[in-house]
Amino acid sequence: MTATSVCGGEGEVPPRDTYILDHGFQFNPATWQRWLPAGIDLPDWLRVCSPAAGWPCVTRRDLLNAGANAQSGHDAMGILIGAYVWDSGLPAGRGPVRLRRILDLNEDHTASRLGKALRVLRTEGSLAAYATLRPRGEYRLRGLGASFYTKLLYFLGWHSAAGDQRPLIMDQFVVIGLNRCRNTAWRPFGPWTTDQYGEYLTWAHEQATRWGARIEADVVERAVWEHGKR
Questions:
Q1: What SS3 class is residue 164?
Q2: What are 197-223's pLDDT values in tens digits?
Q3: For the whole prediction, is pTM greater than 0.85?
Q4: Which residue of 33, 95, 181, 211 lies most exposed, with the fewest beta carbons within 10 A?
Q5: Rounded to 10 degrees, what is the CA torsion of 222, 225, 229, 230?
Q6: Which string of b and e fits 131-168 if b means at least 16 CB within 10 Å?
Q7: What is the DSSP letter of 171?
Q8: Contact of 127 with 165, CB cutoff 8 Å
Q9: More confidently predicted of 163 and 47
Q10: End-to-end CA separation in angstroms for the chain
Q11: How far apart are CA 82 and CA 150, in angstroms?
Q12: Number of neighbours of residue 210 by Cβ within 10 angstroms
């Protein structure tokens, strides 16, 4: 896919299986387990991810499948852990430290708040759940920024969010790409309002429809992210 196709020009749209579902990274389970607080373990589904060259590999497919099956706050916390692992890959860098900071800052509230946000996602939809996780939102987790709570919404709600707006990941590079495509001036580092998140979802879904009847909006999300990163 060319940069021009992201913003409405011509270009080949990559197949979702390889571009999205197989989009993943190797990781060292021992590194992440060592940084988790006592009593919290890597989720079972993360431990059995497909090995690649000796290391496990976590993909969007793994996270989307686990998110679709999540039923509780404990399950949702597993998706949070998996999202940090997926975002960091090898080497893990500061990913485990940042995850531990989130878990320490929120202590015993993490699972309960994520469970409540999950219920909102599945009963009221993507925007309502986004609003609960934003700064001053009812179920906000201290220290957790939009780039990660939108990963949570995407992995937890792609297959199960209420309404007709599937959640998508939104981070600084997505916003830079959106600004270039739409001539907007949104702040790359946020914060982004619920209305802005909704505007992004609408645009991405409309763009996917323009690309083809079977194109999904998360293909647009990654393409815009790559455009923004360039």
A1: coil
A2: 999 999 999 999 999 878 999 999 999
A3: yes
A4: 33
A5: 70
A6: bbbbeebebbbeebbbbbbbbbbbbbbbeebeeebbbb
A7: -
A8: yes
A9: 163
A10: 13
A11: 13
A12: 10
